[in-house]
Predict the 3D structure of the following.
Amino acid sequence: MSETSIPKTSIKIADLIEETFSAVSSNKTRSGLTMLGIVIGIASVIAMVAIGTGAQSSIEARISSLGANLLTIQPGAPRTFGSTVNAGRGNAQTLTKADASSLSSLSGVKAVSPESTNREQVISSTSNTNTSVIGAVSAYPEVHNMTIAQGLWFTDSQVSGFAKVVVIGPTVQGDLFSGMATSTVIGQSITVNGLPFTIVGITASKGGSGFGNTDNNVYIPLSTAQQFLTGSIYVGSISIEATSQSVMTSVTDEITAALLARHKITDPTKADFNIINQADIASTASSVTGTFTALLAAVAGISLVVGGIGIMNMMLTTVTERTREIGLRKAIGAQRSDITLQFLAEAIVLTVLGGVIGIMLGWGVSWGVTRFFSITTQVSVNSILLAFGVSAGIGILFGYYPAVRASKLNPIEALRYE
Amino acid sequence: MIECKDIKKEYTTGEEKTMVLKGLSFVINDGEYVAIMGPSGSGKSTLMHILGALDTPTSGTYLLDGKDVSKLNDHELADIRKDKIGFVFQAFNLLPRASVIRNVALPLVYAGVPKHEREEIAKKALIQAGFDEARFNHLSNQLSGGQMQRVAIARALVNNPSLLLADEPTGNLDTKTGEIVLETFEKLNKQGHTVILITHEEDVARHARRIIHIKDGEILKDEKIK
């Protein structure tokens, strides 16, 4: 008779499961401690990935709150004629209101907002502060995802009529009118650079901090700002809202072509402006947090591997301890593959059970982090599926060697083992 | 029926070759009660391993119920053990922390007997082995030595084997309990089971109806007992 290469088993699946559970439950303390390694490994992977993903999505949300599908055109770096020394980008004055209005007819452009920024002293009857004064047009709130909490944003006629009206951010409101009811702030007068302005609106708080904080701004019509603050026809930047995320690249190309033509520049490398895509910033930020997530997951993954080695160690001990049992099983007719299957199943049960507990623990830890440390976390289905697959895989990987060792035991020697 | 023809077994340790069995030939018919007796180192354990299909001889043929077992591979040997052989060991080798019924039914798991039939078959085997019915659901570690050995005998019987092989079955028992276990074998033999007893004790061997004396790998004497 020829050797068969297909492993022959005689045990039924239902019996295998029964044998496995009785073996795992016969030494509960040790099974529990072995599982603990996997539990901690899986839980830390789940929790770390949840924290990383949470950070990523909160950063993305914050960036998109600055404006959806936002393109920002900044003036290029000025270069003194005949010199090769470049000043910083954005310092030249090359963009005008006329540039902005010419762009509004391009396809894919939803709204255009030329803007200027000046740092000015702003004074109310009771207090004063130094803040950014933004010269804006009526499209500004739409482009920058901004809502008005009280009052109104200025109209087109106010913008074209050099009106001395102002919309203030909630931080400025607090600085200048602390203790005064919001409704009575509307209509109050403040001076900007010595000129009196009437408050017509207050923006809703967007939160955020550092450079991204728009709550600390003051907005006046662009025409007024050009007339009284900057004294020039140039604007600081032009923000453009594209109709959708998918047209961002083509809109960028169109704007480049249109502005190059208007500025009579033939060589695109000598463009006197540059275009910043909000999506690029967002993707950079999310790739940074993605790297962090991967780092956290890798560290957690190491503990998972350690847990797996714990399983292997325990299984090897079990095989040694149960040498006589293995001998007996072989003597009463168990095939080699029956023994392999039995010990492999024990390892898999330990890891999968540990994995399930680990997933629940990781979920709990993520919830706790959000609840007690106010850090956004996001448990993803992917990370759960991955963790489950990994734990089962570890069971097979680290359980295989002990199982094969058990199956290779010579029944005569195994029965004699003391 | 067992037919052994010129069974030789040789072990090699390093350079040195040791001939443990030096060409044994004998026949054991169905329904016999045979003791294989010899001092330690005589080769009786090696012979038992070959008869029990745990090992194969270096040369010679061993026919069990007409089937040549001496040239089978591991898979086929496991099948022979499963279907034709019932082992009783000196150290009982019961599963710890498992019930009496589960221990006895264990061979049925590998024989593919459906779960609901196993308990009935196991109970019958236990009654045959003279085990007290009140203790069927006890755990194996709650039993005395004599009780454990009866569970082991029931386990050996459960597959209705052609051959019961007992390796020093009284070695771990006191004389009185040993007697009871040996009586059980006698009773089973009277019911038609073929029993082979491996022992080094003359007193134990005397319970059989035939003694094959082995020394230094050779049959010294094949003795019938009245």
Q: What stands out?
A: The mean pLDDT of chain B is 91.
